């Protein structure tokens, strides 16, 4: 084995060891501000479906075949929630949005999509819009926030679709105000473009925007929503819009390989999430603001030279925390806190690109509602105590 191969093997073994350590620590954690089933055993996920499934759907009905029965139930429900004529289920949001944007390109005659450079297709999909769907993208703004109306009006070339990610995750789960959102949509209409919402996290955007879900979705020609990011589902997505669009989307779903024989476990988990988690999201958003304030005050009390919560007032139940450290010591401190205290306030830290700084994403949901501001401040102090001096 060559020296370089040995080095790669050693690095992989070290990474595998850290991953196993993290999974063990997460499963043993007693207190966390945000719960998810990322590393939950298969048995736990199955028990969840069996426990709550009967309240969401008649489990004596036959399983779905290629998108009928329980899948149609979910589609109809989401279309109603979003106030759209039609809805179609997809195994992934990446597929759903590629199909939506491809369909709109065919209808508008323009394959150019205007979107933010930090949006999901630009950051996380390996140039799929261009490589797979033959689309090209342009950026109305480079600011770390959604484009405003003037930036859309000033874009120097025609575009067929304006795609808005609500909230914009990579910029800190940020949202525009309702007025700003209506103005940017109107600006796209002035450019004779259609509007598509990347609503992977649209469910929890309602409190900040101050309007019901169907009114928010009603601003756009089409909307994609996810079921696992905030609703606790196993996966899956729905594309909603005009009936003619969603019927065409079903054809493209088949062409893209999304016509799956059985999807009932994923769909059942989505129905459970709509029943159980969707009504709770406003309380998560409200408590995220309490947690964010306490984190800010907690770091100030430790005497750290610089720390930032972004946005200062979270727009959803998720926000960023930035610290003047490299990611590695922050990850180690978080892992030790989970192992030694059984507490998980912070978890994965990411290098920011600016030397000596890193950030993490904080999600507040059901477990976090039990945390008081003093609980958060104490956890911050114990986290900082594990950082290098």
Automatic annotation (TrEMBL):
Do you know which Pfam families this protein is assigned to?
Beta_elim_lyase
Domain named Aromatic amino acid beta-eliminating lyase/threonine aldolase: residues:
67-296
Q: Which Gene Ontology CC terms are recorded?
A: cytosol
Task: Check the record and name the Gene3D superfamilies matching this protein.
Answer: Aspartate Aminotransferase, domain 1, Type I PLP-dependent aspartate aminotransferase-like (Major domain)
Q: Does the keyword Methyltransferase apply?
A: no
For this chain, one GO molecular function annotation is:
L-allo-threonine aldolase activity
**InterPro entries for the chain:** ArAA_b-elim_lyase/Thr_aldolase, PyrdxlP-dep_Trfase, PyrdxlP-dep_Trfase_major, PyrdxlP-dep_Trfase_small
Q: Which terms does the UniProt entry file under GO BP?
A: glycine biosynthetic process; L-threonine catabolic process
Cofactor(s) recorded in Swiss-Prot or TrEMBL: pyridoxal 5'-phosphate
Q: Which UniProt keywords apply?
A: Pyridoxal phosphate
Which family is this sequence assigned to?
Belongs to the threonine aldolase family.
What protein am I looking at? Threonine aldolase
What is the protein's species of origin?
Streptomyces sulfonofaciens
């Amino acid at each position: 084995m060559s020296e370089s191969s040995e080095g790669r093997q050693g690095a992989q073994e070290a990474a595998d060891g850290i991953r196993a350590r993290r999974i063990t620590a997460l499963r043993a954690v007693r207190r966390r501000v945000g719960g998810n089933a990322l590393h939950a055993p298969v048995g736990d996920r199955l028990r969840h479906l069996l426990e709550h499934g009967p309240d969401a759907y008649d489990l004596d009905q036959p399983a779905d075949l290629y998108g009928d029965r329980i899948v149609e139930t979910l589609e109809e429900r989401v279309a109603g929630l979003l106030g759209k004529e039609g809805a179609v289920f997809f195994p992934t949001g990446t597929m759903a949005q590629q199909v939506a944007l491809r369909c709109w390109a065919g209808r508008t005659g323009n394959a150019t999509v205007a979107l933010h450079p930090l949006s999901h297709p630009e950051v996380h999909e390996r140039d799929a819009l261009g490589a797979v769907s033959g689309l090209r993208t342009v950026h109305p703004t480079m600011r770390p926030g959604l484009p405003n109306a003037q930036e859309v009006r000033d874009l120097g070339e025609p575009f067929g679709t304006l795609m808005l990610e609500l909230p914009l995750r990579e910029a800190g789960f940020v949202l525009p105000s309702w007025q700003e959102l209506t103005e940017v949509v109107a600006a796209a209409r002035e450019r004779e473009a259609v509007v598509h919402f990347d609503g992977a996290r649209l469910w929890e955007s309602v409190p900040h925007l101050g309007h019901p879900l169907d009114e928010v979705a009603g601003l756009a020609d089409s909307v994609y929503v996810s079921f696992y990011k905030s609703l606790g589902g196993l996966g899956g997505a729905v594309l909603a819009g005009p009936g003619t669009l969603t019927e065409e989307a079903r054809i493209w779903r088949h062409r893209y390989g999304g016509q799956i024989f059985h999807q009932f476990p994923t769909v059942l988990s989505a129905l459970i999430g709509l029943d159980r988690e969707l009504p709770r999201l406003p309380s998560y958003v409200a408590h995220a603001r309490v947690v964010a304030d306490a984190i800010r005050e907690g770091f100030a009390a430790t005497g750290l030279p610089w720390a930032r919560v972004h946005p200062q007032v979270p727009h959803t139940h998720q926000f960023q925390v930035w610290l003047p450290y490299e990611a590695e010591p922050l990850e180690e401190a978080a892992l030790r806190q989970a192992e030694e205290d059984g507490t998980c306030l912070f978890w994965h830290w990411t290098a920011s690109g600016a030397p000596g700084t890193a950030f993490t994403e904080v999600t507040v949901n059901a477990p976090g509602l039990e945390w008081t501001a003093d609980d958060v401040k104490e956890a911050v102090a114990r986290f900082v105590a594990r950082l290098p001096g």
